[in-house]
Amino acid sequence: MMAQMKEYDCEREADWIKVDLHIHTLDDPKDHLDYSAHQLLERARDLGFGALAITLHDKVFDRPEVFADAAAMGILLIQAAEMRLEGADVVLLNVRPDEVENLSTFDDLRQLRAGRGESLFCFAPHPFFFLGASIGERLLEEIDCFDAIEICHFHKGFFDLNRRARQVAAERGKPLLATSDAHRLQAFGAHYTSIPRPRQLTIEAVLRTLREGPRRLTSPGSSWRDLLNVFYFVFIKHPLRKGLGIARPHHCQHEAGLVSRL
């Protein structure tokens, strides 16, 4: 405990930072979104986030100019991807593009983890939800592949499929992480994990704290408006954009405005 307190000074609320490690942007090769990575950074800066991961589907986000802009804002941007392995989604943090090129099975993931050790972090996103490629009860079979389990943002009152996630995390000794899994810009900012601010904001320090704690989870219940917006996006807007092949906005649309405010 004393060693932990030497690294962290978290007596005040300001000594904690917000982190969101499951976010999508218009760079995503599978989902048709309408906000850029730079718009995300602007919102994250305004809301006081300290670390983010843009988790494109089956692709590592690795645009150098976005990482540079994040650093200029004081935000740690971690290379990441949401990969589909044997029909189930997993989120990998601090992963390189070449490492996911041929990643398709959980045995591939085990091999990658064996070579990377604790420099790689893997968590199970929305594990017990119906939509998407949630891993479900198979999580128990593949639990050795995961460092943490996600608390999904999509819940309200009695409807909370995170109950099973909490149960598995407690039984298997895995930490829980709250994320936004944002596919709409306004959905980012309300659901996140907080950690004590390390003396040096590095990937190593963030991943270590995610494993060891302390952590705080912020994931308020969805409002009826939130639920309607999610259903509208999932069942109407996104299928329509995808079916019509609506072009994504260009990456550079918001860069000039962003740079002028740095």
Q: In brief, what are we looking at here?
A:
It contains ten helices and ten strands. It has helices at 2-7, 37-47, 64-72, 97-100, 106-116, 138-141, 162-172, 203-212, 224-244, 255-261; strands at 16-23, 49-54, 76-78, 80-85, 88-93, 121-124, 148-151, 176-178, 192-196, 216-218.
Explain what the structure shows.
This protein is 36% helix and 18% strand. The chain has 262 residues and is of the alpha/beta class. The chain has one domain: Metal-dependent hydrolases (TIM Barrel). The strands form 2 sheets. The protein has a 5-stranded mixed sheet with strand order 3-2-1-9-10, sandwiched between helices. Strand 7, helix 7 (162-172) and strand 8 (176-178) form a beta-alpha-beta unit.
